[in-house]
Every structure is written in C-alpha cells, then in structure tokens.
Automatic annotation (TrEMBL):
This is Phosphoribosylformylglycinamidine cyclo-ligase. It is found in: Cytoplasm. The lineage of its organism: Bacteria, Bacillati, Bacillota, Clostridia, Eubacteriales. Its main location: cytoplasm. Its EC number is 6.3.3.1. It comes from the Bacteria. It catalyses: 2-formamido-N(1)-(5-O-phospho-beta-D-ribosyl)acetamidine + ATP = 5-amino-1-(5-phospho-beta-D-ribosyl)imidazole + ADP + phosphate + H(+). Residues 172-325 form the PurM-like C-terminal domain. It comes from Inconstantimicrobium porci.
Length: 334
C-alpha cells in the first residue's frame, strides 16, 4: 500500500511540529483571543475604548535572508524578521498590532526547524504585543528542496478612525527623526549574498553570517507610547528601496519633498563594508536602510519628546532632515 509518507509528506512529523509550536503561540495570547490553536480559525474580539475602530492589515516575508539561515543552520531569529516586516508597516498608520498569522512552507518537514521558526515568530509577537492566533505549515515535496523553507506573515492592527496617520497634516518645515536600525534588517539580501560569499568571514570579532542574521528591529512599543505624547504627522518603515522609495510613502501631498542629510548620523560599519565590495553610494541608499529603520515626521517643537521616548527603550535616533515643497523630486539626499 502506498502512503502519504511515500509521497514525501510525513504526517507524524507534522503532529510533532504542531505540538512544539503550541507552546510558543500560547505565550503571545492576549485576553482578547477567544480560542487557541487547533480550531479552523482564530478568533479575537475588538478591544474596548475605540469609538470608530479601523482594522489595518499588512503582509510580508523574510526574502532571501532565509538562505543565510539555511547556510548557518540557525532558524530561531528569522521569525522575528517576519513579524517585524508586517507590524512596522501597519504601525506607520498609527495602528496597534492585534494579531498575527504565519505561513511556513518546506520540501521536507523537520519539526525542530519549523518550531524554531515559530519561536522567532512568537518572540516577535511578544516584542510587538501581538497575538499569534494561527498559521499554516505546508510540506511540499518536489516543490521546495530538502532543507529549505519559506516563511510569510500577516498582521492586523487597530486604530481609531480619527487617529489614522496618513500624512495629510505634514507641512513645510516639519522635521524628520530617524530611528536607528539593528543592521541590514530583511531587505536587499539577494545583493548581500552576491557580495558576501563566505559567511564564516570575521566581521568585528564575529562571523559575518551571524551579523547578517541580526533580527529586524520592532518599533511598536516606543512608537505607540510616542503617539500618546506628541502629534506625529507621518511615519515610514525603511525597507526595500531605502530612503528613496519609502520616505515619500508618508506624504499624501505629492508636492512634498524629504530633504535628508546623510551626515546627520554615522552609517553602521556593515553598510560601509557592503559598499566597499563595489556598490555605489546612490545604489546603497536606494536598496538598504543605511542604519535608519524608521522615520518619524513631527513639528520641530516635539523633537525632545521623541528623543526621550526612544531613549527610554534604548533606541537611538537622530534629526536627519526636514520637509519642504519641490515639484518633481520626492527625496533629496545631501
């Protein structure tokens, strides 16, 4: 008799994986979650205190940063990246993350690897006060190579309708505060892997493979606290496309321009190293975050409050530029 296992799908390994995953998911659940893993769907009630609640959603993955996880046999941090890419995006509109769903696909399921991936997702959810209420693990023999996985996520947050941040109140003269990244984050890794061919190479006393696996920083907690203190007019998560593509996304008035001073902060060594491999400075700024993972637009009078709030969470920030009006140019890097 031919079985599903003969076709490459190990049901028993799937059961083992679910058993390991449940422990990590349980750590993330808020009082608003109405059921646990194992049902056909996850359920969560809308928290009280919202007059006109709006749900804000985002989905993303980790990209080819996963290849470095495969090559270094370290799987327990890329789940943080998956959460960060989603929750930092919805945060840009003032939304507090409510829940998260993940999707993992592989050619051959190893329960310990899939549970490590979900451990990272759980850690990311805890860092963003977000409940992991469900997900899917798909074993797809013949579609993915053995030993390779893909992971994607989906986040939903909530914000009152009259508190949505959409950039409509941004004015000339408002300043841009850049909050430091933890490193390369989760974008540009196809180029990174072209430039870095030996993951065991020393980089400031550590293997460069470990440095490149540093998880994407999650900005949720300090930014949500900041929103209760100051009038935040716009925010941008600096992902693929760098400053050039992401900062203008905070503007609703397309005549606005972000003027950014490249000398306003020290670019981290990892980016200088990558650039030394033959990438032009312009291309670096149009590909990587260059040390700034999140940008906040405020009135200049609120600068001190922003710095104090970020420092409370050990997040360093810098005044990196300002907004003006200039037809035909979205970002000016000086």
């Amino acid at each position: 008799m031919i079985t599903y296992k003969d076709a490459g799908v190990n049901i028993e390994e799937g059961y083992k994986s679910v058993s390991l995953i449940k422990e990590y998911a349980a750590k993330t659940l808020s009082k608003h979650v109405l059921n646990g893993l194992g049902s056909f769907a996850g359920m969560i009630e809308i928290p009280e205190g919202y007059k006109k609640p709006v749900l804000v959603s985002g989905t993303d993955g980790v990209g080819t940063k996963l290849k470095i996880a495969f090559d270094t046999n370290k799987y327990d941090t890329v789940g943080i990246d998956c959460v960060a890419m989603c929750v930092n995006d919805i945060l840009c509109h003032g939304a507090k993350p409510l829940f998260f769903l993940d999707y993992i696909a592989c050619g051959e399921l190893v329960a310990e690897v899939s549970s490590d991936l979900v451990k990272g997702v759980s850690d990311g959810c805890i860092l963003s006060d977000c409940s992991l209420i469900g997900g899917e693990t798909a074993e797809m023999p013949g579609f993915y190579k053995k030993g390779e996985y893909d992971i994607a996520g989906f986040a939903v947050g909530i914000v009152d309708k009259d508190k949505i941040i959409n950039g409509s109140r941004i004015e000339d003269g408002d300043i841009l505060i850049g909050v430091e990244s933890s490193g390369v984050h989760s974008n540009g890794y196809s180029l990174v892997r072209k430039l870095v061919t030996d993951l065991n190479e020393d980089f400031n006393g550590d293997k460069i493979g470990n440095v490149l696996l540093t998880p994407t920083r999650i900005y949720v907690k300090p930014v949500l606290e900041l929103l209760d203190k100051v009038d935040v007019k716009g925010m941008a998560h600096i992902t693929g496309g760098g400053f050039i593509e992401n900062v203008p996304r905070m503007f609703s008035d397309k005549s606005k321009r972000a003027v950014i001073n490249k000398n306003s902060y020290e670019v981290p060594e990892i980016f200088k190293y990558l650039m030394s491999k033959g990438v032009s400075e312009d291309h670096m700024y149009n590909t990587f975050n260059m040390g700034i993972g999140f940008v906040i637009c405020i009135d200049k009078k609120d600068k001190q409050a922003v710095f104090e709030t970020m420092e409370k969470y050990n997040f360093k920030c810098h005044e990196i530029g300002y907004v003006d009006s200039y037809e035909g140019e979205d970002v000016c890097l000086r």
